[in-house]
Amino acid sequence: MEFDVNVIVTYWPIIARGLAVTVGIFLGSLVLSFVLGLLIAIARLSRLSLLSRAAYVYIEFVRNLPFMILLFLFFFGLPAFGLHLPSFVIGVIALTVYGGAYYAEIFRAAIQSVPKGQTDSARATGMTHGQALRHIILPQMMGFFIPPATNQAVMLIKESAILSTITVVDLTMAAQIVQGYTYSPVEVFFMISVLYWILIAGVARVGLWLERVTRPGASGRQLKESVPSTAARNRRPLIGNR
Amino acid sequence: MGPVSFDFSYTLQAMPRLLDGALLTLLLASAAILLSLILATALTILRETGSRAARVAINIYISYIRGTPLLVQIFLIFYVLPVVGIDLGPLAAGIIALGMNSAAFTTEIMRGGLSAIPAEQIEAGRSLGLRPFAIWRKVILPQLFRLIIPPLVNELTGVVKGTPLVSVITVVELMRTAQQIYNVNFRPAEVLLGAAILYFAMNFALTRMAAVIERRNALMAH
Q1: Res B222: pLDDT
Q2: Is A88 inside any structural domain?
Q3: Does the residue B2 lie in any domain?
Q4: Which runs of E-coded beta strand occur in B88-184?
Q5: What's the CA gap between A232 and A217, in Å, rounded?
Q6: How far is A216 from chain B (nearest CA, A)?
Q7: A214 is a domain residue
Q8: In the predicted model, what is the mean pLDDT of residues B10-23?
Q9: B215 vs A89, which has greater pLDDT?
Q10: Is residue A175 included in any domain, yes or no?
């Protein structure tokens, strides 16, 4: 089997444009699913049982579906209800709805991970509510939040490849276009898989960096023998999900 | 056609054929998880006992699988197999792709399970004169397989969620069955809803099953 690198050099502009589209879709759906996830987590933890129940149904429904079927439901379902959007937009909407359910669970776990006594103690020492949140609650939450949130971001990139099946010209679709010109699918798909790999490794690296800078005592003003951070205690391998 | 045209009767009409598709999805996922388990067992033993080079290679494999989209892996396997002289058709390619993908995750599950087996047992096996292979076969693996059942059932839901992707290489599972139906009746939204209900039912049942097994294991541990 011959591995022809020229294919990749010749068609680099198409690949590069696909990569840019993938990165754009990723960043857009990451921000949106973050916001949606936070809102759903708040609804899930709400005292109004109807709201909480609805959030639960939403989370369970989405998390038990393959992303592809969700994407196709939006792609064909929205026009059936008279809403005609470009496939790129539909893709971002589907990724947001999908990621939002997972982020909701990550937010909920992080919020519930800090015992309520922590707020009470901080307030008792004379901190304002904002100070307690900034110095006591959020730093502890971060250890629970950042590793799974990074995982989920990686999952968004990987699922975004499926947008190629609804004609979005992302990195995977670019590979299909190039292999249509060259009939060398192995080189082309291997090449773009390495690009995905690099992109995902980069995101994982950013996650590790965020974990480090948000760790309690990262500013260096704490005692050396302080308790290991929640992040260190709950360390999970990065890139966990499919 | 008016602005809203959703007719649930098309969903019901499609159900019998969709159920056949779902059965194929389950068979596909079962074959893939079986392949995954065999591959992961081999990778686990090799990673624990093999050379440094083998360990590095396995870690790169796991990182690559977890760092690239399943869809791209499916295309790669589909196109690579004939090039290296293996021409088994799309169904086999789909099972191999899903199984090789899942193996990376199952190997990591097994690593977690291994840490729950006390080192003393391996030392005891050694002092009884068991060979390394016998220690794996008689001491480690039987316990490991029992330990990883709940996460493995969860992994199976991951595989089920990956199966619609093999529709792109023309395997007629649930997703492609749905596509075949709506290509004829032009009712994609209704038919896809039916498929979504079936995917949900399969995965929901599996995650519940994993939770029940996990609870029972936790009870037995006490």
Answers
A1: 57
A2: yes
A3: no
A4: none
A5: 13
A6: 27
A7: yes
A8: 96
A9: A89
A10: yes
Which of A1, A186, A198, A238 is most worth mutating to test chain B (most B CB atoms within 10 A of its CB)? Answer: A186
* CATH number of the CATH domain containing A117: 1.10.3720.10
Predicted confidence band at A162 (pLDDT cuts at 50, 70, 90)?
very high
**Digit-coded pLDDT (tens) for A2-20:** 566 777 788 999 999 999 9
Q: Does a structural domain hold residue A64?
A: yes
Query: Which residue in this structure is represented by tokens 């693996």?
Result: B141
* Residues 6 or more apart in contact with residue B191 via CB below 8 angstroms: B10, B11, B14, B18, B178, B181, B182, B185
CA distances from residue A58 to A43, A151, B172 in whole angstroms, order as listed: 11, 21, 29
Domain that holds residue B13: 8-220
For A83, name the nearest residue in chain B, comparing CA atoms only.
Answer: B3
As for how many domains chain A has, the answer is 1
Q: Decide if pLDDT at A222 tops 60.
A: no
Contacting B with CB below 8 Å, chain A residues are 1, 60-61, 64-70, 72-73, 76-77, 80-82, 154, 157-162, 164-165, 172, 175, 185-186, 189-190, 192-193, 196-197, 200-201, 237, 239-242
Find the CATH number of the domain harbouring B118.
Answer: 1.10.3720.10
The answer to the question of residue B3 being in a domain is: no
d(C-alpha B56, C-alpha A6), whole Å: 29
